[in-house]
Amino acid sequence: MQASVQWLDNVSFKATSESGHEVIMDGSAEYGGQNRGARPMELILLGLGGCASFDIVTILKKSRQDITDVKCELQAERADTIPAVFTKIHLHFIVSGRAVKEKQVAKAVELSAEKYCSASKMLHDGGVEITHDFEIIEVAE
């Protein structure tokens, strides 16, 4: 996998992924940022949410759960000192669907956390405390 990051101005950067997608990153105003894009650490958090959500959707579809929506809400804490690494991250999954089984969602969350999510594994092995929970919302036929 390859990527590139190009400085735009002040503390703004354009990141380009191997697949050709671009993301603008910008620092906070205290460092000269202009709120032109997400902060780099926000992108790490978003990547974790995307990686875990991909797993949840894939696993639930394979187990024939009739899901209509999956949302992952993340809350993170960072160290007070430089480097301000993540110390704790909590992922809360909101799974919507028809007759979705709690046992299947619990299994999907566990498999993502312990086996499939590369981002979660990397952060956890780096010392980040990662926790998960979920809720199921029943939708009408």
From TrEMBL:
Question: So which residues are the signal peptide here?
Answer: none
Domain of life the protein comes from: Bacteria
Q: Name one Pfam family in it.
A: OsmC
Which NCBIfam families would you find in this protein's record?
PRK10738.1
Indicate what this protein is called per its UniProt record. Osmotically inducible protein C
What lineage does the source organism belong to? Bacteria, Pseudomonadati, Pseudomonadota, Gammaproteobacteria, Moraxellales
